[in-house]
Specification:
Layout lengths: L1 H6 L2 H4 L28 H8 L12 H12 L3 H14 L24 H8 L6 E3 H18 L7 H18 L6 E3 H10 L17 H14 L22
Antiparallel strand pairs: 1-2
EC number: 1.11.1.10
InterPro entries: Chloroperoxidase, Chloroperoxidase-like_sf
Family: Belongs to the chloroperoxidase family.
Length: 246
């Protein structure tokens, strides 16, 4: 069922045509102007800042977004199409998914980068190389914070599927998808600047990013979000009422 949610539009996307007029460049960046629109997704904002999407942030049709993701990140068109569809229906008023790193919509404008919230999230990135466990810890912490203080907190099963993809995004865009790791410096630079970290040595991956690859990394995050540990640590189970060992 979870795979069905993730890949519902796969076959429809196969015939999607990529426009040939994409003018973006990973090495060329321009900050948004006063009349330019930016949303809660840092990746979409970054694509606009690099002109893989319209720099004014408007008229983001499905065709334009799919083309931008393909040109900037080498995303398979089927994957880009699916991401567009899921983003529209999964979280129209974002609560605290990890990837937004902004305030919940309930608390006001969630389109602006929030340094305080970002610092809360990256406090769980405890090593120079971030792995799935550290990213999952950030996700859990943000969700708990949101549920505790946002009276309109909503997080459906479909939102969870979308959120897992969001949390996996730093690994997919900048890291090692097989190992499930990413350099923390690249991720911090990206979030704080909404800019591709080319000056730190990053470049677009050569291999096409597919649904299968994203599902693999999202599965790592899903497994890492479980707070249940293995029970083979040599501890005896005690009755919760009487303390009797058995």
């Amino acid at each position: 069922m979870k795979s069905a949610i993730i890949f519902t539009t796969f076959t429809a996307a196969l015939g999607f045509r990529i426009p040939q007029n994409t003018l973006g460049s990973a090495s060329q960046w321009e900050a948004p102007g006063e009349n330019d629109f930016r949303g809660p997704c840092p990746m979409m904002n970054t694509l606009a800042n690099h002109k893989f999407l319209p720099h004014d942030g408007k008229n983001l049709t499905k065709e334009v977004v799919v083309a931008g993701l393909a040109a900037a990140l080498n995303f398979d068109p089927a994957l880009g199409s699916l991401m567009f569809d899921m983003a529209v229906i999964a979280n129209p008023q974002p609560n605290a998914t990890f990837f937004t790193l902004r305030s919940d919509a309930f608390f006001g404008n969630n389109h602006i980068f929030n340094q305080t919230i970002f610092d809360q999230a990256r406090a769980y990135w405890t090593e120079p190389i971030i792995d799935a466990q550290q990213l999952a810890n950030s996700k859990l912490a943000r969700q708990i914070e949101s549920r505790a203080y946002n009276p309109e907190y909503t997080f459906t099963a479909m939102t969870e599927e979308f959120s897992l993809g969001e949390v996996a995004a730093p690994i997919i865009a900048f890291g090692d998808m097989d190992a499930g790791t990413v350099n923390r410096t690249l991720v911090e630079y990206f979030f704080e600047n909404e800019r591709f970290p080319t000056e730190l040595g990053w470049s677009r991956r050569d291999d096409v990013v597919t649904q299968e690859g994203v599902q693999k990394v999202a599965g790592m995050i899903r497994e890492a979000t479980s707070l249940i540990t293995a029970s083979d640590r040599g501890l005896r189970v005690r009755d919760s009422h009487f303390g009797a060992s058995f």
